[in-house]
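Morning. Coffee machine broken again, so started the prediction first thing and wrote up yesterday's gels while waiting. Chain of 80 residues, entered below exactly as on the submission form.
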Amino acid sequence: MALPQRITDSEPVTIPRTATRIRRCTFRRLSRAEMAGGPGYEVSCLYPDRRLPLPLGDLESCVAVCESCMADHVFRPDEA
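Came back before lunch.
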């Protein structure tokens, strides 16, 4: 079970909009991080047992991995 983490800085990080949209997944974890271009998010995959996170990189680099995921049951039901 994922535990909530306290966020000290509640200001959202602005990221540039990309043409590709990532499907919402129940096993994806986003963490705030300092990137080369400023603040951003690091993405980890917690599939299948939510014990050991698999680092996928930033939001743009994880698109190819997340879109090629063969476990269709991990995506939220309201995603096409």
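The longest helix spans residues 63-67. Going to sketch it on the whiteboard this afternoon.
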